[in-house]
Amino acid sequence: MLRPSCIAALTLWTGSVLPAQETGTIIKAEVVSTFVWGEDVRSGATSSTLRDPLTGYTIRRLSYGGIEVSARLAYERVSTTETGIFLIHTATIVNSTDAPAIARYGGVCVDGHTVLPPAVPGGKKVSAKELRKNPDIVELGKINCFLSSYVSADHVFSANPVSRVLTIAPGTALTVSSVFRDPRKYQPLRCSTDGCFPTGTIRYYLTVNGQDYVFVWPGSSAINCGK
C-alpha cells in the first residue's frame, strides 16, 4: 500500500519473472496494488465519469473486482476574515462482492505538501482557547458544505484512529469524507470571470481491501459548496 505521503511516481504493478520447469518459457506474474483514475491499461481497473445530478459537475469512478469508488472534490473558504480554504474530498464505496470490504484512510497531498487528517470534535463546541492552541481543529458544524448536506458528515476521516477504518457489508455502499485546510502559505485561489478555483494539484487516495484507489485532481475540478 502507498504510504500517507506525497509520492511523485506511483508504482502500478510489480512483476516477477519465473522460468517454466519444462519448457523454459519466461512467465511474468503481475501483482496490482494501486489503481489511478484515468490509467486503466496496466492496472486492470476501469475509470469512468458521471454527472452529479444536483450540480452537473463530474464525479470520477474507479471500479475493480466488485468494488466501485466514486469521488468528487469540493472547497470552501475558511471564513470571510481568514485567508485559506478547506479542501473536501468525498468518496462513495460500493461493495458488490459477497464478502465485507475494509476501507482505510490513505493520504492527501497538495502541490507536494503532505496533509494529515485534522482533529474533528464532532458535536462538541470548541473554545477560542482550544482553537488558538490547535488551529488544525475542524468544526464540521461551521462548514457550509456539510451544513447544506452537499457533503456527507456520516463518516469523516480524522486524527482519531478509529475513524480511519470502515467496513462495508456485502451488497451495500458507504460514503466517507475528508476535510483539511489547504497547507499552502500563499493564496490558493485563482479568480476569473468564470469564478474562483483552487490552484495546483490535489492527490487523494484511500485503500479498499489492501488496494489503493488514487484520484489526482486539478484544482479547477473542485466545486465551491461554501456560502
Short description:
With 227 residues, this protein is mainly beta. The protein has helices at 128-133, 144-147; strands spanning 13-19, 26-32, 34-36, 46-51, 58-64, 67-77, 85-95, 101-110, 113-115, 165-168, 172-181, 189-192, 195-198, 201-208, 211-218, 223-224. The protein has one domain (13-224).
Kindly describe this structure.
With 227 residues, this protein is mostly beta strands. The chain has one domain. The protein is 4% helix and 46% strand. The protein has helices at 128-133, 144-147, and strands spanning 13-19, 26-32, 34-36, 46-51, 58-64, 67-77, 85-95, 101-110, 113-115, 165-168, 172-181, 189-192, 195-198, 201-208, 211-218, 223-224. Strands 3, 8, 9, 10, 14 and 15 form a six-stranded mixed beta sheet that branches. Strands 4, 5, 6, 7, 11 and 16 form a six-stranded mixed beta sheet that branches. Strands 1-2 form a two-stranded antiparallel sheet. Strand 6 and strand 7 (85-95) form a beta hairpin. It is globular, with a radius of gyration of 19 Å. Mean pLDDT is 82; it is low at 8-30.
- The number of distinct helices, counting runs of at least 4 residues, comes to 2
Total beta strands: 16
- Ends distance: 37 Å
Query: Can you write the helix and strand succession as a string?
Result: EEEEEEEEEHHEEEEEEE
Oligomer: single chain
Instruction: Calculate the mean pLDDT score and round it.
Output: 82
Helix content: under 10%
What is the SS-derived class? mainly beta
Domains (count): 1
* Biggest sheet character: 6 strands, mixed
Shape: globular
Q: Flag low-confidence runs.
A: 8-30
- Rg calculated over all Cα atoms: 19 Å
Please state roughly what percent of the residues sit in beta strands, choosing from under 5%, 5-15%, 15-25%, 25-35%, 35-45% or over 45%.
over 45%
